[in-house]
Structures are given as structure tokens and as C-alpha cells.
Amino acid sequence: MTTLAIRPIYAVKSRWVDEGISEEAQFVAGLTRRAFISLRGARQQLPFDELSSIRSQENLDGSILRTAQLFLLALPSWTPPPEVAVDPDGEIAFDWFGSRGKNFSVSIGIDGLLSFAGQFGPRVSMHGKDEFIDSVPHRILEAIAALCEQNSARDQAA
Question: Which domain holds residue 143?
């Protein structure tokens, strides 16, 4: 059987964590994955697949991967799926790309600290740090929305 338990992950406040490895736990994880895909779409599953690939290629602590998964789950359904990579310092990076070099990147550490930076035009950029505690900070969502709006305007003009 599997059990959900609240467990602290270093400095990140308590979260729901499922660490079951039994056959039943794997079955429940599969059902959860299929439900997620049906609710949010197969396209939203891509970052999770990239995280699984990273897990098999990199020697990362499982806590950072769980924190990254929680960040992905906290993103609203309107956000396009980000590209996922590992930073040299071991943080997980989420990248969104727009036209003409416009981009936005968020890196998350094991402690839930978000470092972000974006370029939205020749003279428009932003950067900063914020804390991830079960929800994506508003200014990060605004930056992703701004990049999406620029992509939408470009697609409508084409």
C-alpha cells in the first residue's frame, strides 16, 4: 500500500510527498499520471518526462526532483510547458522561449528558493529571487504571461 505523509524537505515547508515503491504505489502513481494528462493535456506531461530523464542521467538528490515536480504541478494550466534542464550548481531550470531572443528562466533549489531572469525586449528585462511554498509567486506568473502574450501576438500577425 502507499501512504501520503507530510514530510519536511529541508528548508521548504511541509509538503505532501508520495514515496511508495510497492507495486500498488506504482499503480496509483500511474493512475495519477493518466488523470493529470487527461485534465491538463499530454503537452503538459513533457516537463515531467524531461525530469524523469534527468533523474536517470544525473546524480541528483531525489528531494530536488520532488521539489521541481511540485513547482510544475503548481503552474496554472494556461502556462506553456517549459523546457527542463539541470544548472551547473545542481538546481533544476525551467525555460520558456519567445520570439527574437525573448525568454524567461526559473531555477529552483532544494530549499525552494526560486531564482529567475527574463528578457522581454531590447530594454525590458527582470530578475530576482523568491520563495516557492506550494504556489508559484505572482511576479513569475506575470512574466510567463507576458512571454505568452508576445508569442500570441506574433502568431496572430503571421
Answer: 5-157
Q: What is the pLDDT of residue 36?
A: 59
Contact call for residues 132 and 113 (beta carbons, < 8 A): yes
What are the cell numbers at 107? 531555477
Set of cell numbers at residue 56: 536517470
pLDDT at 14 over 50: no
Q: Report the predicted TM-score, pTM, of the whole model to 2 decimal places.
A: 0.70
With the C-alpha atoms ordered 75, 81, 117, 11, is the resulting torsion angle positive or negative? positive
Q: Considering only CA atoms, which of 71, 91, 90, 67 is closest in space to residue 79? A: 71
Is the pLDDT at 114 greater than 70, yes or no? yes
Domain count of the fold of the chain: 1
